[in-house]
TrEMBL record, chains A, B:
Annotated Cation/H+ exchanger transmembrane domain residues: 31-443
Location of this chain's protein in the cell: Membrane
Protein name: Cation/H+ exchanger transmembrane domain-containing protein
Matching Pfam families: Na_H_Exchanger
PANTHER family tied to this protein: SODIUM/HYDROGEN EXCHANGER, SODIUM_HYDROGEN EXCHANGER 2
Length: 578, 578
């Protein structure tokens, strides 16, 4: 089928003005390649080295070679890289699904650490890469790059792509690590895009303290407003679906409203120059917390899987595209006279990425550990290495930002720009393929056997048990008990993981030193925030916006059982009992 | 929110070169309007007159007026009408979903009648409208129209849009009528597009017998090849999913493969200049018969609802767009000097549509009734009137074909072309709004009360019972019994509706005359085809491509129960027992 298309392609590529027929050929080829990626990815599922991203990249590169040969060296790709395509159609489902499927309990429990890694960490990485680039690139012959370009380089190469590592980690076996890597990945995406926009909007001709404060102010404003917009959109959808009770007439309307509202939040954020990624991420979280529980059972199953599938297809599409685009001859022509410099630039960038990431993962882990009271909540050294490694890959966001900064309408003109585009491609390809291939073995080596993992869990459980078993049915606020306790009973789930009850803080387990004042402060604030949030949620939010408490819930129904790993707020027995 | 966007819009519309920001505004506005349509549609669900299409049209027109005012009469729409958008993105999900959700048993039972109406009927309608247009328009001052234009007009106005009527009819209460209206709508869509393409591809300068034969040959070739491609794509997806057992690792891959293969079949048909509508329709039928039963339970729920939702959104999008586009000032300028002629042209076309449809519905119903043995299978006069009425609306397909024939890149240049575009808009708007508003009352008047409807069903059942109850477990071929009987037993469904057993033909019920030889011939051939098909399906197709027989089926599981109206091959107890 692919060959058939390519044969048609080689004849149609020459005809001008037939954009219609050419686009049909492109779409055909892309869809056929997507199918191929899925099938090959499935067949290689058990493989120790390969993952879906690498498969898609490899198939993309092979297709690029074939097209290059068929078009006699003219072009290697079918579509001009379009930021619109990426930012308007492919990224939203990926990020929305991330928010929708995230285990909210884990995410919010580690919220401080995740935010620390995702914002402060990204800022540190950004500074190191920018400063390193300024310092080193001026000594190399890479054409003219302005101050804004260097800062953009910092932002571009701070955007990590942790998909590879997430495919290897198991959400049930290493919940802490998974939520840290996952959460950091999302916040990092948002931070780097926000940083990139902030850098572009600020006048950089003369930097002084005022401008730096302006940058920081800009950053915080974007962060808060984007989050707010996402939360409002999510709550609005929950409110509409709850009030109008769509399920009465048609499940299609429920699903359509959820999809459209999520997309609308993303596009409104784009329109208002906010961080659409953050907006749609928080919209996803709110939708899975409220809206999802207001719809009919079949809508729940459908949205859960439909969003995951959309995200899955979009991810493969991106890697396939990056693979195809890597061989685009135009870009490589500019730097063909100095291949040594190109290799040097890419190597320096890779080095800066390694250093920049190490410079924040280990110190911030140390700070985060100070705030944790139980040893199971602390980030061990091996886990720190895994977190460091997980953020070394660079992916589609870096590509898209690089195209935005260094090319106009997909065409690269200046020498410096060409260098940066090709270096980005090299870094993305190298990190995805080489680091990606090493990820599975490395993670299995660092977190070796399922035995080790299960030991970690059971120790975790024993700790939390010794904390909470005596406290069952005791320390929760009344509002909590009224709404949650009967539900929990019907679910047959004991109230473990009850770190949010205040009494926790006064019961240090044997062998763990009493909290220091700094730790006390951080833990205390985080826990009381969570406590008040639950109170607020139960007494005000749920009556208005719906949620678990207001839907007839049949324990043991096949759908709920098979999807308990998803958006549950309460731990199920499998997760918490040995 | 809409107003906010429009305010931004009015400032951005003037800026040139900012296609990016303009497209973001357009997408925002469109998504917000889609949400509005869904909510308003939901609120008006119980209304006697309004349906979702009319809501979307009305909202589209209102938005068009606002944009027209804001842009000071420059333009009324945000996007230029793009055939690509329509034929590549909006139509495929609608038609695929039609095939996917069709009740195959009813569809294939009435296959002869549906094909008769959809192909022969459309050809009759096409001839009458073309000849009428040639005869009448030459007398009016409507600019120069060529022979090809007149034939195109015939094809354009033969494409019906039966969505309005289907929203009113109940698939469970009037299964025969529903399957006829629905099936004819799909086959008609395909026929008119195939006709349109055939007319465009044939040299029309001098018509003789050879060219007419060429047209017919072209038509049959397109029909058969398109069907074949769809069937092959569907079977391929079933085979891949069954062989590789995707569900083992991930439900996302199953769903993704189904979506992508369906879309690939559509795009391959487009590429090969076949009728993509027919292809994707039969792909949907095959997928629901084989592939759907090979995937996991949650994938089944997800695909069912996701496809329905996509189709739902696409339909609203089209009507919204047609509403917005109706006020486009450019087109009306050409005909503003002769409004009388414009009204005349539209009225004549509407008249031709009414006559052209009457000219085949009643005669073909008579022929079809000759072939039916039981009175319940015959199409009553009131039902004939309903079928006639259901096909009077014209919709998006007519619009898209008219744009294809009478404008280049969305701009209408010649006087004759402008007349035809505006007339198409007028006919589409008038028929959708006026006929659409009358549909609900008319159908309720013709098929008055649920009592009457339930009487029809029970009489239907009694007839088929008196035929088949004595034949239970007797007349089926051995292959049938081996595979189906235990399944049927486990389903607790007696073997009613067994018209495929040969003995049926020899048992006329009292009061119905013995079959005439013509009836005998038609009934016989149709029934033996079905019989041999089931034999072939059970002994060869199912072992290779999967299907109901090979998936562990839990009777009474909530998903199966709540979706029994969908793609079941076997009547469930609710449908067949009083």
């Amino acid at each position: 089928m692919g060959i058939f298309n390519l044969a048609v392609l080689s004849t149609t590529v020459d005809r001008l003005g037939t954009s219609d027929s050419k686009s049909v050929v492109s779409v055909n080829l892309f869809v056929a390649l997507l199918c191929a990626c899925i099938i090959v990815g499935h067949l290689l599922e058990e493989n120790r080295w390969i993952n879906e991203s690498i498969t898609a990249l490899a198939i993309g590169i092979c297709t690029g070679v074939v097209i290059l040969l068929l078009s006699k060296g003219k072009s290697s790709h079918l579509l001009v890289f379009s930021e619109d395509l990426f930012f308007i159609y492919l990224l939203p489902p990926i990020i929305f699904n991330a928010g929708f499927q995230v285990k909210k309990k884990q995410f919010f429990r580690n919220f401080m650490t995740i935010t620390l890694f995702g914002t402060v960490g990204t800022l540190i990485s950004f500074s190191i890469i920018s400063l390193g680039a300024i310092y080193i690139f001026n000594k190399l012959d890479v054409g003219t790059l302005k101050m804004g370009d260097f800062l953009a380089i910092g932002a571009i190469f701070s955007a990590t792509d942790s998909v590879c590592t997430l495919q290897v980690l198991n959400q049930d076996q290493t919940p802490l690590l998974y939520s840290l890597v996952f959460g950091e990945g999302v916040v990092n995406d948002a931070t780097s895009v926000v940083l990139f926009n902030a850098v572009q909007n600020v006048d950089l001709s003369n930097i002084d303290a005022a401008i730096i404060f302006q940058l920081i102010g800009n950053f915080i404003y974007l962060f808060l407003m984007s989050t707010l917009l996402g939360v409002v959109a999510g709550l609005l959808s929950a409110f509409i679906i709850k009030k109008l009770y769509f399920g009465r007439h048609s499940t299609d309307r429920e699903i359509a409203i959820m999809i459209l509202m999520a997309y609308l939040s993303y596009m409104l954020a784009e329109l208002s120059d906010l961080s659409a990624i953050l907006t749609v991420f928080f919209c996803g979280i709110v939708m899975s917390h409220y809206t999802w529980h207001n719809v009919t059972e079949s809508s729940r199953v459908t949205t859960k899987h439909a969003f995951a599938t959309l995200s899955f297809i979009a991810e493969i599409f991106i890697f396939l595209y990056v693979g195809m685009d890597a061989l685009d001859i135009e870009k490589w022509r500019y730097i063909s006279d100095s291949p040594g410099t190109s290799v040097a630039v890419s190597s320096i960038l890779l080095g800066l990425i390694l250093v920049g990431r190490a410079a924040f993962v280990f110190p911030l882990s140390f700070i985060s550990n100070l705030a944790k009271k139980s040893s199971s909540d602390k980030i061990e050294l091996k886990q720190q290495v895994t977190i460091w490694w997980a953020g070394l890959m660079r992916g589609a966001v870096s590509m898209a930002l690089a195209y935005n900064q260094f090319s106009s309408v997909g065409i690269t003109q200046l020498r410096g720009d060409a260098f940066m585009i090709t270096s980005t491609i090299t870094v993305v390809l190298f990190s995805t393929v080489v680091f990606g291939l090493l990820t599975k073995p490395l993670v299995l080596h660092l977190l070796p056997s399922p035995k080790h993992l299960s030991r970690m869990i059971s120790s975790d459980l024993m700790t939390s048990k010794s904390f909470t078993v005596p406290l069952l049915n005791g320390q929760d606020s009344e509002a909590d008990l009224d709404l949650v306790a009967p539900l929990r009973k019907s679910l047959n789930v004991p109230h473990l993981n009850g770190q949010d009850s205040e009494a926790d803080l006064d019961l240090p387990s044997p062998g763990i030193p009493r909290p220091t004042s700094l730790r006390m402060l951080l833990t205390n604030s985080s826990h009381s925030v969570h406590h008040y949030w639950r109170k607020f949620d139960n007494s005000f939010m749920r009556p208005v916006f719906g949620g678990r408490g207001f839907v007839p819930f049949v324990p043991g129904s096949p759908i709920e059982q098979s999807f308990h790993n998803g958006s549950d707020n309460y731990p199920t027995s499998e997760q918490t009992l040995p």
